[in-house]
Amino acid sequence: MTDTRATQRIVTRPGAGNTPRPAGRRAHRFDVVAAWGMLTPAVVMFLTFVIVPALVGIGLSFTEWDFFRPPVFVGFDNYTRLVSDPDVWQALGVTIQYVVLGVIPTVLIGFMMAVLINANMPGVPVLRVLYFVPVVLSVAVSAVLWSFMYDPRQGPIAALFRVVDVPPVDFLNSEVLALPSLVLMMIWLALPIVIIFYLAGLQRVPEDIYSAAALDGAGTWRMLWSMTWPNVMPTTLVVVVLQIINFVANSLDVALIMTGGGPLGATRSLSLYAYEQAFMSQNVGYASALSIFQLLLIVGIIALGRVLGSRSFR
Amino acid sequence: MTMRYGRYTTIVVFGLIIAFPLLYLLSGSLMSFQEISQYPPKLVPSELIWQNYADAWEYLTPRTVLNTFIFVISVLVLQLAICLPAGFALAKIPIRGTGLLLAMFIIPIFLPANLTLIPTFIVTLELGLVGSFAGLILPVVGHASLGILLFRQFFATFPGGLIEAARLDGAGWFRTFFSIALPLAKPVIASYSVVTFLTAWNMYIWPLVAAPGPDTRVLTLALAPLAQGDFSNISPAVSFAAAVVAMIPVLLVFVLFQRWFTRGIVGSGLE
């Protein structure tokens, strides 16, 4: 009875094909045991530190909690408070600025630089290392470095301003310039990875389309925009998604270290606001609601991107 | 020919612009206090002040450096230990439910880490691990999506005949994994290790909330205050030297394993 069922299962199992199974019915059970033996550590760690926290976060967003006393259920209060909190809207605007000011230049400059150093000329592989330099720097190290670069009295950027006869300002304490200054550093930090992606993407562009275009008399710029750029579109899509995530994620570390979110909240993104609510004001429930709100926004953007993306490809 | 020189010049000029902040960091780390604070800024120190590095070492403390190595190496080893077998099982052992598991592992890749920060902290707190090495390390290990998917991708493109042959010879799945799959996976292990080392070494927020105490404090936590205009008691040159000290291991890893790094980055792009 059991034997027949097991045999049937093996025969009808997709992928089993005609390969004879030496151990007969035991093979299948052994497959399951071995697979779960190998999967269990990863699944347990993943459930404990990713899935359970996600569920706990959703649950806590409906409560008021200060880390110490037991959480109090408050229904949708945190969410209604969030909608009428002017700081949330400011932080949302700041988050959008981080992403828009950061991602577009990073992708375009990264593409141009990859094209530039994707050359089969002697010495270029060595020179490429210059372009990869920022990749080894952490936000903490670059923060030390760039805080001094932006110093209005002694920093090199202030010196550049003086050369063109513009009085330098205190970049990181200016409500207008603080955010672009942080974004400039973040672009610089992100460029090597984008360049590496495009270098890989460029290798897959077939050489012969260029010779054909050259015969037709296309110039360098023409070829770049009407041949190279469309041909690396798959790479661009990957890079854009990764960089949106990167600028959203890094906005927390960078602003926390360099400006503390200031001046007057000008560099405080949604994630920094949630961080402050959780770890400085001990409003864990409200902070959880802020995280969920941000999550919904990102899921919405990705869904929108997929809809628009699939439309433009058809 | 002229076009060639033009291209070389452009490559060098842009390369120097990108590398300038780092060169400035190295050069500033060797300047005296007077030199680094003078206007107009000097780019090359007139005399090399190595004392800055001794001061920086004292500021960072050997304990912090050791903590950082404990953190980074534990994360790396544990991630490999859970991700490699999981990736192999997902790719090669035909059982039900792998599709569902894969879908589960893919989701977090599209979520910025700071979204999961607060909930992860709460679970770590409830487990009583905040402030300990376990609390610092295990949650980072748990965010293992990238490793699992990268290794699954690698093992999926694996010559299937080899595995079949080993299985027909009577080797169990574990034996097949250890003696056939693992040795052939060396390149992808190298790539993943380099990327993970750099990522863990540079982490800031998680160590800040999970284990900021002096016994578990890592380098990035010691560095951050130097960026907040806290130049009053410490010469900027010493701050620069501290930044360089914190950067040397990553720089070494990157220079030695640049090829693997490139592959690891592109491989993790889920192409």
From TrEMBL, chain A:
TM region positions: 33-62, 96-117, 129-149, 177-200, 232-249, 286-308
Q: What is its main location?
A: membrane
Q: Where is the composition biased (Polar residues)?
A: 1-10
Domain of life, per UniProt, equals Bacteria
Query: Where would you find this protein in the cell?
Result: Cell membrane
Q: How does it sit in the membrane?
A: Multi-pass membrane protein
Transmembrane helix as a keyword?
Answer: yes
Q: Which UniProt keywords apply?
A: Cell membrane, Membrane, Transmembrane, Transmembrane helix, Transport
Q: Which Gene3D superfamilies does this chain map to?
A: MetI-like
Location of the region described as Disordered in the Swiss-Prot/TrEMBL record: 1-24
Pfam families of this UniProt entry? BPD_transp_1
Coiled-coil zones: none
Q: Where is the ABC transmembrane type-1 domain?
A: 92-305
* Entry-linked PANTHER family: ABC TRANSPORTER PERMEASE PROTEIN, DIACETYLCHITOBIOSE UPTAKE SYSTEM PERMEASE PROTEIN NGCF
Instruction: Give the family from UniProt.
Output: Belongs to the binding-protein-dependent transport system permease family.
Q: What is this protein called?
A: ABC transporter permease
Give the species: Agromyces marinus
Lineage of origin:
Bacteria, Bacillati, Actinomycetota, Actinomycetes, Micrococcales
